């Protein structure tokens, strides 16, 4: 599940980080490919922020190696800083600085920054450009922090819970921006405890819990593997499911849960759906309330850790 | 997300740091603007020294010794202003910068730490320059006649620069080691105590010998004494006071460099 690569955006091997008695990260491997969105997913206290902050050069690992764009985040910090954009989970701005002023300032620290005015508009901060940071709403503060992370045109950005506390509209605006970063070849490493965010945005998901990686893969791989998916429909009671099962792949199961309510479980793919509807047509059944339930990352997490993701 | 959408090129990576002088200038400009926008900071750095200079010069509150009161008070007000900006204001401001993660975030920007420190120094010196203009104008209006000539002006610049360095070191040491609230309280307390007992407005001769011996080696006392030597008494370069300030600067900046925690 871990392929070392010399050309990864981020390569973490055997990372251990302790705070006093407490072990925040206990032997973590993580690879984020260049040009991809990698989501580090886990409940609060899983070690997400610690991992990201080691990669950002803020913390010294107790064991293991960390390479960011092929460099050591602490020893090569001066070289990495212009190339890596950072969005902290909170804070990072002078309370009395105005939103636009702070963003312009970060832009000035870079050689070829983005157009600040366009970026401000893009993130819906146009109306609060002259508002001091401390009077911005939580969502506006988040979006400013995101803008600060990307304004220097970095190769790689670390986004620590980029959508925490955002309303749905702002959340989608943030997702859209992350998709554009990816489309333009920027590598993105983000942390989240929102499953749908990881599913929607990422090429690769690393689920961690208790400072250890639980599983990683593409969202599709994680949702497909292991447990079965199901489809349900309702129709006339007492259908002959035996004839249906003959037409379906061997590992598929079909059951009449209650009179007229049917459940099919197995690998639900388009071919299976076609087979079921053909069989319904042959039997003169109009399948009603037909639903397909795919496993979500939420289910994957629950199965692997026995716990729900807290938010 | 498997479908790769075509990029617009807007975010295509073109990383790079701005030239160091430009980064320092930008950071110093921002810090100075923020300082001048902050009401409490303005009160501390501009208004209190100016009001005390006016008040003590026109109302006979303390016996400032022989000669015009303003000749004693103007150098003291300058020393107080330098302390207010470089020590009290800087300690409080930097303490809260640290608390709000500003130092942490800037640590991830292309601006190196040394560059941030240089920018802070520039911002402090720019503020002190404004204070000097204001206090000089008020003192001259009150009939102040500074002595010392060109050599004296040079000595004043040296004294103020070394004083600012000494206060900055001590202020940053406090900001980088204590919690922001503790820094706020302690820095204000030190300011008020030294306003009274730092040889700024009240001659140190008024204090008992034992206390005076201690107070005389404090940076604010050394600074006001040195400034008075030059501006009131027309003395030469006050090497003793300069040496004392240099010692404080080395000690303060050294300890700050050693113990400052960025988060």
From TrEMBL, chain A:
Keyword Transmembrane: no
Short name of one Pfam family: ABC_tran
Domain ABC transporter: start-end pairs: 10-235
Major place of residence: membrane
Domain of life where this protein originates: Bacteria
Coiled-coil residue windows: none
Gene3D superfamilies linked to this entry: P-loop containing nucleotide triphosphate hydrolases
UniProt entry keywords in alphabetical sequence: Antibiotic resistance, ATP-binding, Nucleotide-binding, Transport
GO molecular function: ATP binding
InterPro entries: AAA+_ATPase (IPR003593), ABC_transporter-like_ATP-bd (IPR003439), ABC_transporter-like_CS (IPR017871), ABC_transporter_ATP-binding (IPR050763), P-loop_NTPase (IPR027417)
Subcellular location: Cell membrane
Membrane topology annotation: Peripheral membrane protein
PANTHER family: ABC TRANSPORTER ATP-BINDING PROTEIN
Name of the protein described by the UniProt record: ABC transporter ATP-binding protein
């Amino acid at each position: 599940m871990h392929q070392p690569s010399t050309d990864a955006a981020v390569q973490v091997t055997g990372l251990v980080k302790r705070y006093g008695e407490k072990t925040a990260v206990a032997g973590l491997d993580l690879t984020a490919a260049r040009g991809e969105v990698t989501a580090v997913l886990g409940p609060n206290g899983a070690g997400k922020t610690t991992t990201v902050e080691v990669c950002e050069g803020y913390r010294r690992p107790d064991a293991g190696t960390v390479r960011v764009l092929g460099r050591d985040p602490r020893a090569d910090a001066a070289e990495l800083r212009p190339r890596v954009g950072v969005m902290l989970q909170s804070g990072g701005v002078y309370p009395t600085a105005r939103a636009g002023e702070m963003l312009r300032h970060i832009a000035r620290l870079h050689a070829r920054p983005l157009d600040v005015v366009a970026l401000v508009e893009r993130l819906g901060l146009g109306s609060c450009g002259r508002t001091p940071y401390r009077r911005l709403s939580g969502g506006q503060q988040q979006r400013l922090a995101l803008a600060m992370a990307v304004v220097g045109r970095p190769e790689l950005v670390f986004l620590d819970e980029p959508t925490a506390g955002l309303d749905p509209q702002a959340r989608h605006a943030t997702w859209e921006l992350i998709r554009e970063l990816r489309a333009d070849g920027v590598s993105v490493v983000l942390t989240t405890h929102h499953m749908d965010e990881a599913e929607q945005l990422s090429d690769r998901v690393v689920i961690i819990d208790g400072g250890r990686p639980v599983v990683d893969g593409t969202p599709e791989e994680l949702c497909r593997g292991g447990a079965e998916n199901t489809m349900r429909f309702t129709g006339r009671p007492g259908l002959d499911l035996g004839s249906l099962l003959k037409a379906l792949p061997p590992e598929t199961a079909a059951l009449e849960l209650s009179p007229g309510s049917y459940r099919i479980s197995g690998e639900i793919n388009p071919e299976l759906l076609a087979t079921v509807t053909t069989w319904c047509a042959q039997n003169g059944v109009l399948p009603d309330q037909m639903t397909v339930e795919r496993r979500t990352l939420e289910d994957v997490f629950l199965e692997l850790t026995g716990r729900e993701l807290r938010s | 997300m498997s479908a790769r959408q075509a990029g617009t090129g807007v975010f295509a990576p073109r990383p790079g740091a701005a030239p160091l002088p430009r980064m320092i200038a930008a950071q110093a400009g921002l810090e100075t603007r923020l300082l001048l926008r902050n009401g409490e900071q303005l009160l501390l750095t501009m208004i209190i020294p100016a009001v005390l200079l006016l008040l003590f010069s026109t109302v006979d509150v303390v016996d400032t010794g022989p000669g015009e009161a303003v000749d004693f008070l103007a150098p003291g007000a300058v020393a107080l202003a330098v302390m207010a900006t470089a020590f009290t204001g800087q300690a409080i401001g930097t303490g809260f910068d640290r608390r709000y993660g500003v130092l942490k975030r800037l640590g991830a920007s292309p601006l190196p730490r040394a560059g941030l420190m240089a920018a802070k120094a520039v911002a402090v010196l720019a503020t002190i320059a404004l204070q000097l203009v204001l206090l000089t104008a008020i003192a001259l209006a009150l009939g102040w006649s500074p002595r010392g000539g060109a050599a004296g002006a040079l000595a004043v610049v040296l004294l103020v620069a070394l004083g600012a360095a000494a206060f900055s070191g001590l202020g940053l040491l406090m900001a980088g080691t204590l919690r922001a609230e503790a820094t706020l309280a302690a820095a204000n307390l030190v300011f008020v105590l030294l306003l009274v007992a730092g040889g700024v407005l009240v001659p140190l001769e008024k204090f008992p010998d034992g206390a005076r011996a201690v107070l005389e080696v404090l940076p604010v006392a050394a600074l006001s004494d040195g400034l008075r030597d030059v501006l009131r008494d027309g003395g030469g370069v006050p090497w003793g006071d300069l040496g004392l300030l240099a010692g404080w600067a080395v000690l303060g900046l050294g300890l700050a460099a050693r113990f400052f925690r960025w988060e």
